[in-house]
């Protein structure tokens, strides 16, 4: 398939390789969809929301209630992701994975609430139980299975949860071994004093969990022998310790999306932390991932480098919600369109080199 796709790409009326990374994208989407004529069908963006027990300790510049207030904003159509999704004709799915607010039954809001008031504070113990962790992953997977049954073949991921850059930093450090201080950033806009405080709190969160499972490279996950500690299981323990319900739901959704053969459009720092968990469980998920952009949150560039992921865009954004994923969708459409619609040297009668 790869050779056939490459031949089709190289046969188009352009100098070899002249469409640059669009060519790699066309190849990747063709491989995911097992076809020489790939296309993006009914693209969706799944935005999961959840609250974090640690938010009250001061890891964010904003108060916790912004999480539910922004969910209301999503439902009313006024957030950045609503605007950008409309621009690119993507449908939004908003899931309450565990926001500390009672929305009641609401049109347009998927009730995937785990617990009532968000996660527990990881500065005191695990953020969630393993049972809650599995539950949140299953709920994400169920949303994606329903979506795949409707014919959607492309899914972007987004999140909302005050304090979730801190959670993502802890997950990233534990899952990759990247130095904790280097993967902690300003999130919504902490000042220098706030950043120092966040660093101290997160160092403490790591220090009070001395028995955390060690994790090696993705290759070690693929090669691990029966009877050895499974890095996928270790990743679940790390996720339960430091994760948010929204991040956990997204990890489960990503695994199901790859299983369904979808193109996964990865957003910023927090969404990439959910992918790190999923990749420890099933490293082959990375073949299905398009990295939409590089966020300005310190640590995203390092995550991408660790995953060998090349972001399509670098716009200095640091918002989340799936906004980077939305902006990358036109590039996916363009990649499919040139492969499907451009003339070839033979069909157009243009001389080759
Ligand atoms: C009004 C507002 C809208 C947002 N939309 C996404 N985020 C982003 O900021 C949060 C993470 O940053 P931290 O870890 O510093 O709290 C997440 O909710 C993320 O999606 C927002 C944040 C705010 C304040
Ligand atoms: O990279 C992101 O997704 C991000 C960065 C800062 C705040 N919220 C999200």
Automatic annotation (TrEMBL):
**What are the protein's UniProt keywords?**
Cobalamin biosynthesis, Glycosyltransferase, Transferase
Instruction: List the InterPro entries.
Output: Nict_dMeBzImd_PRibTrfase, Nict_dMeBzImd_PRibTrfase_bact, Nict_dMeBzImd_PRibTrfase_N, Nict_dMeBzImd_PRibTrfase_sf
Q: Does the keyword Glycosyltransferase apply?
A: yes
Residues in the active site?
Answer: 321
SUPFAM superfamilies, per the entry: Nicotinate mononucleotide:5,6-dimethylbenzimidazole phosphoribosyltransferase (CobT)
User: What is one GO biological process annotated to this record?
Assistant: cobalamin biosynthetic process
Pfam families, sorted: DBI_PRT
Enzyme class (EC, first level)? transferase
Give the metabolic or biological pathway: Nucleoside biosynthesis; alpha-ribazole biosynthesis; alpha-ribazole from 5,6-dimethylbenzimidazole: step 1/2
GO MF terms listed in the record are: nicotinate-nucleotide-dimethylbenzimidazole phosphoribosyltransferase activity
According to its UniProt record, which reaction does this protein catalyse?
A: 5,6-dimethylbenzimidazole + nicotinate beta-D-ribonucleotide = alpha-ribazole 5'-phosphate + nicotinate + H(+)
**EC number(s) per entry:** 2.4.2.21
Q: Which family does it belong to?
A: Belongs to the CobT family.
Which NCBIfam families does this entry report, sorted A to Z? Answer: cobT_DBIPRT, PRK00105.1
Q: Function of this protein?
A: Catalyzes the synthesis of alpha-ribazole-5'-phosphate from nicotinate mononucleotide (NAMN) and 5,6-dimethylbenzimidazole (DMB).
Can you name this protein? Nicotinate-nucleotide--dimethylbenzimidazole phosphoribosyltransferase
Give the originating organism.
Answer: Rugosibacter aromaticivorans
């Amino acid at each position: 398939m790869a050779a056939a796709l490459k031949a089709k790409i190289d046969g188009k009326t352009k100098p070899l390789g002249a469409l640059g990374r669009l060519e790699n994208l066309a190849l990747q989407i063709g491989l995911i969809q097992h076809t020489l004529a790939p296309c993006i069908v009914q693209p969706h963006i799944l935005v999961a929301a959840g609250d974090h027990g640690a938010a009250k300790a001061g890891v964010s510049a904003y108060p916790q209630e912004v999480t539910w207030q922004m969910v209301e904003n999503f439902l009313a159509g006024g957030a950045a992701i609503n605007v950008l999704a409309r621009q690119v004709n993507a449908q939004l799915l908003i899931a309450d994975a565990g926001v500390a607010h009672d929305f009641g039954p609401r049109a347009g809001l998927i009730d995937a609430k785990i617990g009532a008031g968000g996660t527990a504070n990881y500065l005191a113990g695990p953020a969630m139980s393993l049972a809650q962790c599995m539950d949140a992953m299953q709920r994400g997977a169920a949303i994606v299975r329903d979506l795949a049954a409707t014919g959607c073949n492309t899914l972007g991921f987004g999140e909302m949860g005050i304090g979730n850059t801190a959670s993502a930093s802890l997950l990233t450090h534990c899952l990759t071994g990247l130095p904790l201080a280097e993967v902690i950033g300003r999130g919504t806009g902490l000042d220098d004093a706030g950043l120092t405080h966040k660093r101290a709190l997160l160092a403490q969160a790591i220090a009070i969990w001395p028995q955390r499972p060690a994790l090696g490279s993705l290759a070690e996950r693929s090669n691990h022998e029966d009877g050895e500690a499974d890095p996928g299981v270790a990743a679940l323990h790390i996720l339960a310790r430091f994760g948010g319900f929204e991040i956990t739901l997204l990890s489960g959704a990503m695994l199901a999306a790859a299983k369904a053969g979808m193109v996964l459009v990865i957003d910023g720092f927090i969404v990439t932390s959910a992918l790190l968990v999923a990749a420890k469980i099933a490293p082959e998920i990375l073949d299905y991932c398009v990295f939409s952009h590089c966020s300005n949150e310190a640590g995203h560039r390092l995550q991408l480098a660790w995953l060998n992921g090349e972001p399509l865009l670098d716009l200095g954004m640091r918002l989340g919600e799936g906004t980077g994923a939305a902006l990358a969708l036109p590039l996916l459409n363009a990649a499919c369109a040139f492969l499907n619609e451009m003339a070839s040297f033979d069909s157009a009668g243009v001389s080759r080199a």
